[in-house]
Amino acid sequence: IIPKDNHVVSFLQIEAFYMNWTMDYSIIGAKAYAQLTDGTKVPGTIAKNGFIDIKDLPLSKDPIEIVVEVPGHLKSIQKLTLPGTKTPWGEVVGEYIQKPGAQPVAVAGDVNQDAMIDINDVIQAVAFYGKENKKADINQDGIVNETDIRFIEKNFLKVGPDVPKNKKPKEKLGNKGLADFLRAIGLEPIK
Description:
Layout: E1 5-11, E2 31-35, E3 41-43, E4 45-46, E5 51-58, E6 60-69, E7 72-73, E8 76-82, E9 85-86, E10 92-93, E11 96-99, E12 108-110, H1 119-127, H2 146-154, H3 178-184
Parallel strand pairs: 1-11
Antiparallel strand pairs: 1-5, 2-3, 2-6, 4-5, 6-8, 7-12, 9-10
């Protein structure tokens, strides 16, 4: 049987779960898919161990994007070209491609999932500090705590790879910035 499509295997790299080998990545609410140049999304699966598996990708010289979306994180987008490979007799066939270390890290801190980490994420996390809240609990340990807040602080004002150039993260709410909100919950800024 000669494959007429491509099959890509990659690996999740998620900042809030980095080096957590006991995590079941299949249940954290993450999605993986390939986005073709025409906008078509080819769904993938995520295994317990964090491997991404996307099958039935068309042969194309146009780049595709392997996209990972994780709650509380900016998107991770890996660009690939999958033209297939030529057999000795000149037929173009699909490939099985492994890219386990190539997926960029999904940056933690995007609580409201607007593709940027800004004061709006700080406000939401601070509002639920010390409480249970699935959106603001970035590392999914059951409570919004200092760990979640520090991810936002570390990545403050970063934007996702798919943010339009004219969209900018908001640094302050009125005259209150990150440090003000941290101090309001008894934390000192690290930056």
